[in-house]
Amino acid sequence: MDNRIKQRHLTCFLEIVRSGSIIAAAHQLNITQSAASRTLGELEEIINARLMERNRAGIVLTSAGETFYRHVSASVTALKQGLEQIARTRKDARQSVIVGVLPNAAERVLPTAVARFKARNPGCPVSVVTGTNPVLMQALRVGELDFVIGRLAAPDDMAGIDFQILYQEQLAAVVRPGHPLLVLELHEEFMASLAEQTFVIPLADTIIRRDAEQLLIAAGVKKVADVVETVSSPFARAYCLQTDAVWIAPWGAVEGDLRSGVLSALAVDAAATQGNVGISTRSESGLTPLARSLAAELQDVASDTVQKSQVSGRNQL
After folding, report:
1. Helix axis angle, 22-29 to 33-47, nearest 10°
2. Res 91: pLDDT
3. From the first residue on, what is the mean pLDDT of each consecutive set of 10 residues in the chain (317 residues)?
4. What's the confidence (pLDDT) of residue 92?
5. Which CATH class is domain 7-75?
6. Quick one: 94 exposed, middle or buried, by C-beta within 10 A (0-12, 13-18, 19+)?
7. How far apart are CA 122 and CA 88, in angstroms?
8. pLDDT of residue 40
């Protein structure tokens, strides 16, 4: 390796990729924006290649940047794993589990699994981090997370990542009780009225955004008149209860609301939106004993939920 490349260069580069912008990276690293830009410029000059393009939306890795990122992140991950292994051999090492979870998977099986894990491992800290898939998968690759719970990503995004399925679920179109669409479902004007609604849908860079669009197409909505984009279930739920918006949501995020009558489901075809939800881990490093224990609890909870759904006749898992 070129001895001109320092740890600060690699740290800055990885943080820019993780944060999605130079400004955000500078904030996280507690340096000025100009210092972060200068460090990145030094790195690009040393390796004689442009690593990323800057635009108003943030940064986009070039082909050279993608290659450099894969190798650097793997190297840094290996270094962190070595340090973690040393730390685990120390008697005073803090034992904990850090889990990344996509918002659509946060409410269904994780709370019960964490409760069971805590009962078996009292005093063991568990940290649950939410975010979009790109952010969580980058954190997983660099060793900041033990594993990630969410939908199976595209093949190109799963290089170096193992996936273990927990369950399958579809999306649902839900509205507040008493919504005008609920009385139109058996009438011809339902389709026309549906197309005029405001839809609450996942952000553009999320895995389930394409599934949400497929659901709308299957429901006859080829062009959406108005949207609110979010991955926050609490916001989406509150917004739908206050307005006539239609929330396109993962079944796991609204199952409790539908069962209790807080929200109502529209009769739309969601078969094309069914996807696998599971645990993503780094292929090479595997899991620590504690992380493996929590993953096992997740498997058990998911299995229990599948059986309950089959008994009750709800084939959403």
Report:
1. 110
2. 37
3. 81 90 86 90 92 84 90 80 60 71 81 95 92 83 88 76 90 94 75 87 85 88 88 93 94 90 92 90 84 94 72 48
4. 41
5. mainly alpha
6. exposed
7. 18
8. 92
Long-range pairs, 137-142, Cβ under 8 A, ≥24 = 137/161, 137/280, 138/17, 138/18, 138/73, 139/18, 139/100, 140/100, 140/280, 140/281, 140/282, 141/73, 141/74, 141/77, 141/282, 142/14, 142/18, 142/73, 142/76, 142/77, 142/80
For 315, the token pair is 């084939």
Q: Which two tokens stand for residue 254?
A: 């609204």
pLDDT score, position 295:
95
User: For residue 184, which amino acid is it?
Assistant: L
Sequence letter at residue 259: R
What is the predicted pLDDT for the residue at 86? 62
One fold for 7-75 and 171-273: no
Q: Decide the pairing of beta strands 246-250 and 198-201.
A: parallel
Yes or no: domain 94-169+275-312 corresponds to CATH 3.40.50.2000: no
Kindly compute the dihedral angle of the four CA atoms of residues 21, 23, 28, 32, in this order, to the nearest 10 degrees. 140
CATH code, residues 171-273: 3.40.190.10
Both tokens of residue 149?
Answer: 């719970």
Q: Amino acid identity, residue 130?
A: T
